[in-house]
Sequence to fold (145 residues):
Amino acid sequence: MKILFLNGPNLNLLGTREPDVYGRTTLADIEAQVRARAAQLKVELDFRQSNQEGELVDWIQEAKGKFEAIVINAAAYTHTSVALRDAISAIGVPTVEIHLSNIHAREEFRHKSLIAPVCRGQICGFGAKSYILGLEAAVYVNVIE
Ligand code: DQA
Fold:
């Protein structure tokens, strides 16, 4: 089983970016943690980050037929991107939405996720652990259904 992890804009700055909100764990540290759990679950991973909306759209489109699931932290594009939502909807690969912070407990503009209706579910508010839970949810969705 292969799972594609996608990370949106500014997540390359994790570790130094607003540590009171996002913690001090870098994206590389998170990737290492996810890879360790994926090895236990015998899952293959691809783990990517882009600040470009179009690149994320391309990667989602290319996932069809190559990955059994996508786990995505679309970052700020969560709240703005019809293009990401349409790409997820178009390919039909089960997708899990994740966030480090609890977007519902923050500013009102973060409460709305444009991608949530086309994702299987949403995990938010558990810091770096949201990524592990996202991986486990993706495996669970594929194994059970
Ligand atoms: C985020 C939440 C978003 O609102 C924000 O724009 C991010 C990170 C999170 O992981 O908590 O960049 O997706």
Observations:
- The longest strand covers residues 2-7.
- Residues 129-144 form the longest helix (16 residues).
- The CA atoms of residues 71 and 134 lie 6 Å apart.
- The chain has a mean pLDDT of 96.
